[in-house]
Amino acid sequence: MGVKSDISIDVLGLGSVTVDFVGTVNTWPGKGTKKMLDSLTICDGGLVGTALVAAARLGGKVAFAGKLGRSEMARRALEALRRESVDTSFVLETEDSEPIVAFVLTDSTDGQRNIFWTRQNVHYPMPWEYPDRNWFRRTTVLLIDFESGLAGIEAAKTAMQHNIPVVIDVEHNESHVAEAMSVSSHIIVSEEFASGYTGSGNVTEMLTTLRSNPEQVVIVTRGENGCVGSSKEGEFELPAFAVDVLDTTGCGDTFHGAFALAIARGLPVVSAARFASGAAALCATQLGGRAGIPTARQLEQFLSKHES
After folding, report:
1. In sequence order, what are the residues at sequence separation of 6 or more whose Cβ sits closer than 8 angstroms to the Cβ of residue 109?
2. Which CATH superfamily is domain 9-305 in?
3. Stretch (H or E) spanning 13
4. What is the pLDDT of residues 242-262, one digit of tens each?
5. Environment class of residue 285 by beta-carbon count within 10 Å: exposed (0-12), middle (13-18) or buried (19+)?
């Protein structure tokens, strides 16, 4: 069944959802050794999946476009989105489609983590496959990630043709990434990715190289060092918010979702980046990619306490 065409969408997301097996240790194991976990939790994640949950918790009307089957993992991923009020009427049910399954090992002393994942039977819909063929008429912002591949590129092209901002999340440089970034209006990447992609250790050079179009916005997130950005209004830098970090899983995704929602609401780029930084900081205070994502009220209170 298609979605109702009279309902507007703040953020439509196309990209990965995952089921994460998250374990914690208090000392990092060496290669080839055995280590007992201090805890093990099954969480729901994914770049776009978690970003949409963030936007929804912050009060946005969001929808997920994807392909999922009927397996236990697929049902879990879908129900997790529905519980967070993410519209799943854009999801196509195909028998062999699965979410990404990830294994996350987190160091409980500093919140850093390693992630291992699989793309086995993971598929993404082309924009003309969406139940609502006129999705672009009621979508304010499109959010894609590098995992969506050609499907994300095609959706971004359609969005840009209709003057819809496209926010992209990229973690790895793959063959389609350059084209995906070229058809996106807002590029948000980590400093680690930006450095590897551009071959530079200078953030100003990273921003210049990544921003291939003068109309684009590029933001490089730097963890505890905040973020830097570049747009047609100029460059900016924001410090990170000081919080007690427990787990950094999902912080980048939360930043993307909160930023996309802020743009959908018409906030200027710097204000949107501060809004997203606050949401990401709160996300880091809880274990798991989604547990610490704040509500609109929680983020409002947090930001009000950190007014400069």
Report:
1. 26, 27
2. Ribokinase (3.40.1190.20)
3. strand 9-14
4. 998 887 888 999 999 999 999
5. middle
